[in-house]
Amino acid sequence: MARVTIEKVAERAGVSVATVSRALRGLPNVSPKTRDRVVSVAAMLNYRPDPNAARLAAGRTRTVAVGVVAIPIWYTGQVVSGIEAVLTNRGYDLTLLLIADELVRTRALGDVGGGVSKRADGAIIVDLVPTVTERLLLAEHRLPWVMVGADCPTIDSVVIDNVAGAMSATRHLLSLGHTRLGLISGGPAAFPSSSPPERRTGFLRALDEAGVRFDPNHERVGDFSALGGYEAMQALLDLRQRPTAVFAMSDEMAMGAMRACEEAGLTVPGEMSVVGFDDVDWAFTVGLTTVRQDAAELGAIAARLMIERLEGEACDRRLVSVPTELVERSSTSAPSQ
Amino acid sequence: MARVTIEKVAERAGVSVATVSRALRGLPNVSPKTRDRVVSVAAMLNYRPDPNAARLAAGRTRTVAVGVVAIPIWYTGQVVSGIEAVLTNRGYDLTLLLIADELVRTRALGDVGGGVSKRADGAIIVDLVPTVTERLLLAEHRLPWVMVGADCPTIDSVVIDNVAGAMSATRHLLSLGHTRLGLISGGPAAFPSSSPPERRTGFLRALDEAGVRFDPNHERVGDFSALGGYEAMQALLDLRQRPTAVFAMSDEMAMGAMRACEEAGLTVPGEMSVVGFDDVDWAFTVGLTTVRQDAAELGAIAARLMIERLEGEACDRRLVSVPTELVERSSTSAPSQ
DNA sequence: GGCGACGGTGAAAGCGTTTTCACTTGCCGG
DNA sequence: CCGGCAAGTGAAAACGCTTTCACCGTCGCC
Lengths: 337, 337
Prior knowledge:
Two copies of one chain form a homodimer.
Chain A: H1 6-13, H2 17-24, H3 32-45, H4 51-58, E1 63-68, H5 74-89, E2 93-98, H6 102-110, H7 112-115, E3 122-126, H8 132-140, E4 145-148, E5 156-160, H9 162-175, E6 181-186, H10 195-210, E7 219-222, H11 226-238, E8 245-248, H12 251-263, E9 273-278, E10 289-292, H13 295-311, E11 319-322, E12 325-327
Parallel strand pairs in A: 1-2, 1-3, 3-4, 4-5, 5-11, 6-7, 6-8, 8-9, 9-10
Antiparallel strand pairs in A: 10-12
Helix pairs in contact in A: 1-2, 1-3, 2-3, 5-13, 9-10, 11-12
Chain A binds a DNA duplex (30 and 30 nucleotides) through residues 3, 5-7, 15-19, 21-22, 25, 28-31, 34, 49-59.
């Protein structure tokens, strides 16, 4: 099965390689008759252009890089699969960049000129806000960027309204009559995203709105994992004056928190209400009240924005926000006396 | 910031491009002195070879394609992140191929000649067993393949011992005194992998070993999701003679199953024991007894095998099996009278 | 002291596309 | 009828590397 190149197609179709190239890519200035012939010859020979040659010649890769902090989180997986779906559909390749630590981060973002810019036409960054320095570097290599999960000024961003989401969760708790609320957050260090501070803001704003005071001691940081939530809740339970309800910034942390309660002999929601964030697929199995976000849709939108940037004409920076929705289940109730 | 090409480096270092190429890639036949000079000039100019040009010239891509069925599953995310880690570490790119349906599957596997073989040097397929026809097609384009999660004859495979894993779970249930066991499996249709039948085999073998009879009516298929497990368990609970314990082929299904029990007013493990498979990060939050597998490690091993195939000398087909481990928590106990 | 071998190097030929540019036609309007 | 313009086409120059091959010293060896 010898390599079939564009040249062979040209030969068999009795035209030049230039014409084949044009015909196959749907460019103008090819007569319908010629185009048909070329297309059918190509099909017959089962010709596939070599993407590398095309990339080299055209200077475009038809590839977008996706940078994520950590795949194994539910949220990340959803986003990536949303991106993948539309990218594949539009004939783009997707190259994964796992940004595990500072080192890799530098390699991927800072040094992006050599790193990414020759491998991809653009990059979608999931839940990672670039530093100012990094932003400058990005700008230098005129690569299109789109952020998902963080509203990054001057860069196309697709986000959820974390403030509103957190507020809805918090209001729900308040409306049930809770006045001593706990917060299981994710520290910037653990998860260098903008979501934690935003959700924190929403949480505090709802309290403020209701005139309820927040005891700073009632905030613990998890690392967005079940274990992190578990330990955070244990710490809260150790307090002499414990909260009667907690808002965890992710479902996984919420589940860890519920576990801690159970081990401490507290019933949920009887003695402790818990609300999470995400609505992961299995959240219903523990009756978790949570804030639903459609992470896959976030990814899909980001991919669409990217393709528009790559193929459409220049346009202003865009920001799209997809709504969240509180879903009430059985992990929350009025506080017991 | 003009493009810095290999030519510029050669110029500044006072050598030919050939020498630069050799020096930078650590090839022999370059004097240490020359190499040092080239390396430092390259660093100074911040030179990065264009991967596309390199691929075109060398005929190798330093990219491996990863085909997965569905990213959002815990298992898949783990595997991919394991792969990513070692690939990145060794200077390979990773391109993601989401194989969602038959259509894509054909495109990705069947048509692999044009599809993958020019984009990647090899492919790692996660949890998908290719049909015989597909295997022939793969063989045609001399691409190295490695399977993870399925022992595919003639192809390098890294797997866990599903039979043994399922047996350990089942024996555990039996040793507690259960004799009416239920099985929540994943149909081949829902999840075209070899794990479900293998786990089923292990389950049946353990029963057989113990001389316990299996009521075929006690098997329901989920789709490896929490919801699937939930519905499967509901069906089991509807039986006039229900099992007293069930083995679910994934933790997510197990959690759905536990939920169904709770809704039906059954206590776990009091009136129903449940054991899962995977040991997902949050399994401990519901006290799930389960069979732990290190999915990230599976991915890492697969990536290493792939790199060896690509860089090492030819060798026989390899099969590596990584052990599983039963972890006992609180979702299982002796049956109630 | 000659001779082959070998390490180090450069020139140049690809690799398989895309894209520019120049060159035909055929057609239209004047 | 002729000049000009547009559509259709091909030749050839990139694109930025890798790799082969030939070449030149230097060495070790008989």
